[in-house]
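User: Here's a structure from my thesis project, written as structure tokens. My advisor, Dr. K., wants to see whether a designed sequence matches the one we expressed. Can you design one independently, without my sequence as a hint?
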């Protein structure tokens, strides 16, 4: 078989934004189809602490730290900055009320010393685009001040983790950055 290069990424964003659902999509897409299972896959529940996941994508073998976005667990995020090659930030584009909280958390992450020393790329998913009235990527850029990120490569892609839209496009971009 082909030898895949190992890369490590961190997936961040507020609780309920769709991080675990996105990772479940990539795990499903990368595993060899097994015999049809009589039971449906386990439901996705809010992550406690974090969950370590792995999947293959093209020539890369991804190790993913799927962090909980709940307030009481966000303190954990910083312990994983040192060993990460890239960031995935998931936004609930339908949750306009919490964009100010997202903005605060994002800028606190980006200004952390470990990430200041490490100009790793970041891809944003403007997730839940299937919900009526969800913010467009342009509106997310404005709400979060993303234009001010000038010290590292970043991109934003509209996605829906429930129907898979946009997910490959975002990961494709990140994979290209990690080559
Ligand atoms: P924490 O682990 O608590 O940080 O949350 P999370 O970011 O991992 O969110 P999770 O993947 O658990 O999804 C939260 C809820 O949003 C679930 O009910 C998902 O089914 C739903 N969800 C995720 N992505 C989408 C999406 O693109 N569209 C819609 N409509 N719902 C979504
Ligand atoms: Mg989760």
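Assistant: Designed independently from the structure alone:
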């Amino acid at each position: 078989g082909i030898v895949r290069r190992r890369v490590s990424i961190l997936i961040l964003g507020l609780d309920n934004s769709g991080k675990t659902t996105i990772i479940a999509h990539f795990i499903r897409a990368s595993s060899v189809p097994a015999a049809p299972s009589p039971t449906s896959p386990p439901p996705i529940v809010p992550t406690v602490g974090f969950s370590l996941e792995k999947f293959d994508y093209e020539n890369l073998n991804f190790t993913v730290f799927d962090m909980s976005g709940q307030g009481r667990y966000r303190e954990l995020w910083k312990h994983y900055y040192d060993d990460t090659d890239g960031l995935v930030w998931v936004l609930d584009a339908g949750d306009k009320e919490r964009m100010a909280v997202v903005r605060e958390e994002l800028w606190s992450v980006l200004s952390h010393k470990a990430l200041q020393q490490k100009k790793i790329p970041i891809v944003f998913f403007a997730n839940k685009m299937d919900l009526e009235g969800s913010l467009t990527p342009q509106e997310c850029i404005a709400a979060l001040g993303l234009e001010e990120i000038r010290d590292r490569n970043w991109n934003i892609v509209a996605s829906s983790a429930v129907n898979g839209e946009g997910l490959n496009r975002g990961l494709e971009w990140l994979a290209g950055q990690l080559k």
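When you compare it with your expressed construct, this may help: Residues 19-20, 46-47, 66 surround magnesium ion (ligand 2) (CB under 6 Å).
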